[in-house]
Amino acid sequence: MESSAPLGLKVDRPPLTFSILFRFFILGLFGLCLFQVLVYIGVSYSSPTLASAIWNLGPGVTFLIALIFRMEKMDIRSSRSVAKLLGTMTAIVGATVFTFYRGPSIFRTIISPNSPKQILLSQPSNWVFGGLIITTGGLFSCIWAVLQTATTIEYPDKQTIVFFYCMFGTLQCIALSPFIEQNRNAWVLRPGIRMIAVVLGGVYSTAFRNSVLTWCLWKKGPIFTAMFSPLSIVIAGIMGVTFLGDSLHLGSVIGAVIIAVGFYMVIWGQTKEKITEVLGDELDVSDQDGSSHQSAPLLSSRIDSNC
Fold it and tell me: For residue 249, which phi and psi values (nearest 5 degrees)?
């Protein structure tokens, strides 16, 4: 079945079979329900800093899962594969430096003992249990990225994927949440910051973010998308310094530079790989047709002139 798309293009839309709907159900379970629930629970037992540190492993874990599912090829003799591997490892190192190494303060901000941030940092935590839960949630998210990429290749209608994936994930969260939070007063939404957070979470974090992620996974694959995870830590640090009055430390600057270097290496490797694939396709077509390659007419004319 085909349907019209913008600019007169046609997109093949396979029928919504039970297997496709079941895959949407799994995507909602891994990427929306289990990931968000486990991360929120893990942060409540530990801290956002630990969650950021564990999430730095996302590109590496995604790369390994993509290799297992044969969505990425690893050739040690190829500079493109080596660049992607080293870039992923470099980004992980940079994000780890950004999280754990503070160094001397470049900008200092005095925090009041009664400020909400100081109260949050002084709360007790169970880092081991919280870290295990966050790691499990991150693993589900990495698996989701690979499965989502495979789904966009098999079922190219990305709007339908996002719709069913979000719908199934929302229904799963509704069924699971009462067992996690049994206090009825916690479910009452009052006007204020809590209402704004819920609305922004639904519009941006769920609808807009998942639509953009699905499109990026379809265009660039899971490795490219996962590489933005360390960059999010840098962006959060900049926004914290700008809007929340956080202190900027030397370790944050060093980590941000290392992340940028690793990100550039991965982008360079994927760009070279894409160019090689395009040139390879053109050479294959020229070998089959004999006249589709740009150099074929020049070659034939030169032979005629010599004759």
Answer: -110, 160
Q: Residue 140: CB partners within 8 Å, gap ≥ 6?
A: 30, 31, 34, 35, 38
Contact present, 260 and 97 (Cβ < 8 Å):
no
Per-residue pLDDT reduced to its tens digit, 48-90: 766 776 777 777 788 888 888 877 777 777 888 888 788 888 8
Q: What is the pLDDT of residues 214-236, one digit of tens each?
A: 888 888 778 777 777 777 767 77
User: DSSP letter string over 123-173?
Assistant: S---HHHHHHHHHHHHHHHHHHHHHHHHHHHHS--HHHHHHHHHHHHHHHH
| Geometric angle at alpha carbon 147, from 146 and 153, rounded to 5° | 95
Tokens of 30: 């891994």
Cβ 173 vs Cβ 32: under 8 Å: yes
pTM over 0.85: no
